[in-house]
Amino acid sequence: MQHAVGAPLPPHDPGRVPGPETGHGPAAGWELRAQHPGPPPPQSPPPPQGPPAQGWSGQAPQQAPVPPAPDSTGHVSLPPGGPVPIPSPPPPADNGTGTATLAVLLIGPAGAGKTTVARHWAQRRRVPTAHISLDDVREWVCSGFADPQTGWNDQSEAQYRLARRTCGFAARNFLANGISCILDDAVFPDRPVVGLGGWKRHVGPGLLPVVLLPGLEIVLERNAERTGNRRLSDEEVAGIHGRMAGWYGSGLPIIDNSQCDVETTARILDDVLARALKSPPAW
C-alpha cells in the first residue's frame, strides 16, 4: 500500500490484522486465531507410499502438447510470400496522347460543341483528366451576374476576366498534382492579348490550343437547341463564326467536326494533340 509522502507508517502489530483503513481483513479489534488456539483438528492418515512408476524419477509425467483449437473468428491465413504488387499502368498507345499529362485549350464559337467534346475527351482518357468550362465558372456569380446578351459592358468584361483567371488557377493546381486538364473558351483571333495571350499567362507556355470550327449551318442548328442565356441570336452566332474564321492561317490546328459525332471528334482531338506534343504549335 502506498502512503502520502511524509506520512508515518502504521505501527506493526503481528497480533492484529489490518484495520478497516487498509481495506483488507476483518475489522479492527479482532485477534488472530493463533492467539487463542483450540483443539488441533484431526489429521488424516498419510497416503500409502508405493514404489514410483518406472521412468518417472519421482516427477510428474510429461503430457503431450495439446494442439490449439481451430480459429473460429473467420480469419484466413495468407500464404507465404511477399505483398501483392501494385498493378503497373497500361503502356502508352501507339497513337493518341496515351498517359501524357497536358493542358489543352479548346477554342470555338457558340454551338461548336466545345463543352461536350471536351468533357467526352476528359472522361475517356486513361489518366486523371479534368474539364474546366469557362461558362460554368462564369455562372458561379448568382447575384449581379452580367449577362452579355443584355449588352456587353465593363461589368460583363470584368466577370469574363475574373472567370478566366479562376480557370487558370484551377488548371495550374490540377497540373501541379499530376492531373491533366482541358479548358474551353470562345477566343477570338483578333484579340490575342485578351484571349489566347491571357490563357497563356494564366496556365503556362505549355498550353496546347486547338480550334473546333464546324460550318455555319451546323453552328446555327446546334445553337437553336440551346436554352437559357447560352442560346444566342442567329445574327450574333453568325458574327462570332465569321470572326473565328480568322484562325485559318494562324498555325493552330483546326478541326471541322461538321460531319462528326462527339466520340469521333474526341478521337480526332486526341490524335491532333499527340502530334502537337511532338511538334508544339508556335503561338
In brief:
This protein has helices at 114-124, 134-138, 154-176, 196-203, 216-224, 234-244, 262-278, and strands at 103-107, 129-133, 180-185, 208-212, 254-255. By secondary structure, it is of the alpha/beta class.
Structural write-up:
This protein has 283 residues and is of the alpha/beta class. It has helices at residues 114-124, 134-138, 154-176, 196-203, 216-224, 234-244, 262-278; strands at residues 103-107, 129-133, 180-185, 208-212, 254-255. It has a domain at 103-278: P-loop containing nucleotide triphosphate hydrolases (Rossmann fold), CATH 3.40.50. It is built from 7 helices and 5 strands, in the order βαβααβαβααβα. Strands 2-3-1-4-5 form a 5-stranded parallel β-sheet, with helices on both faces. The longest helix has 23 residues, at 154-176. The protein is globular and about 45 Å long. It starts with 102 loop residues before the first strand and ends in a 5-residue tail after the last helix. Mean pLDDT is 75; it is low at 1-9, 14-37, 53-58 and 81-93.
> What percentage of the residues does DSSP assign to strands (E)?
5-15%
- Low-confidence spans: pLDDT under 50, at least 5 residues? 1-9, 14-37, 53-58, 81-93
What is the highest CATH level, the class of the domain at 103-278?
Alpha Beta
Q: Can you tell me the CATH architecture of the domain at 103-278?
A: 3-Layer(aba) Sandwich
Strand tally is 5
CATH topology of the domain at 103-278: Rossmann fold
SS-derived structural category: alpha/beta
Write the CATH homologous superfamily of the domain at 103-278. P-loop containing nucleotide triphosphate hydrolases
User: Count the helices. How many?
Assistant: 7
- Name the shape in a single word: globular
Instruction: Enumerate the strands of the largest sheet in spatial order, edge to edge or round the barrel.
Output: 2-3-1-4-5
Terminal Cα span: 87 Å
Q: Biggest β-sheet, characterized?
A: 5 strands, parallel
**DSSP helix fraction:** 25-40%
Listing every helix as H and every strand as E from the N terminus to the C terminus, the arrangement reads: EHEHHEHEHHEH
Whole-number mean pLDDT: 75
Question: Rg to the nearest angstrom?
Answer: 43 Å
